[in-house]
Amino acid sequence: MSENSRKKDVTTEIVVGAFMFTMLVVLLTITVVMSQNKFFEKSWTLKAEFPDVGGLKEGESVFLRGVKIGNVDKIEVAEDESGVELEMRLDRPVTLYEGYKLQVETASMLGGMRLVIDEGDHSGPKIPEDQLMNLKGEPTPDLLETANLLVGDLREITSQISSGKGTIGRLIYEDGLYAEAEGLVKSLNETAADLEIVSENARLISDRLATGKGTLGRLLSEDEGLFTELTNTVANVNAASGDIRKIVARVEKGEGTLGRLLSSDDQVYKDLSATVESLRSFSESLNNDEGTVARLLSDDTLYIKVEGLVDEARATIDDFRETSPITTFSTIFFGAF
Fold first, then answer.
1. How far, in Å, are 8, 10, 152, 202, 256 from residue 5 at the CA level?
2. 272 pLDDT above the threshold of 80
3. In which element (H, E) is residue 9 found?
4. Taking CA 270 as the corner, what is the angle to CA 267 and CA 276, rounded to the nearest 5 degrees?
């Protein structure tokens, strides 16, 4: 074999070896990506025993509070066949508390399963780290049984509706409830209209206040003139209150007429009582026809006499007027001699 042939064979072997090495690297990469394993990152392992896993497979996701934190690494039936032993590889450590739950759930409506971790009550005691390799999982819900229960509940609900029971049944079969609902809607519409009117009125009031209209608007917008007037008014009221307090003090001290009337000294009261008594005696004497005034009020004889006297006086005055010219003439005539 020549030197060139030997070199050609070596080159071919090197190319084939490089190609095979590249293919192995690609296959390893694809395997890592597909298995979602992270060989070069730190991981934490949890082990749990389940009564059954409901079709959960290796590689399925593990969730905590709705966040994926790892995958199911290994699933196998327990040696004593009392359950299923499951191993999880997590991207982060998990602290579990008393009352924790590990449960297999359906991942979506399209199928698939997932493992969900509930940490438990954080106020309770923590689960020791040595027990994290011997956790207990919850039984997987039977989907068929759950579906049957759901169908039964739906059948019961539809039966109730068909017989006119319940709110939905009454809405479907009774006209009265529709009328009540229609009335309620009408009332709500009227209330909404009233609220709109109130809102409009509030807006108008706000606009008037903002533009300084009305008493309150002037108080909010004008300078200190109106405030000064109010201050003066308050001062006048305070001054009047002071005067009133002085009057009340004088009354309490028994000063002045009102004070003397309200004082504990009853002399004024006695004087008034004596005056009232005198007036009562005078009134009684008038009623009994005693005295001149009483006779003037009750006896018309004196009135007739007085009336006659007045007539005589009037006649005398008339006679005097008639004789007055003659007297004057006589005086003048005899005065000339």
1. 5, 9, 82, 105, 152
2. no
3. helix 3-35
4. 145
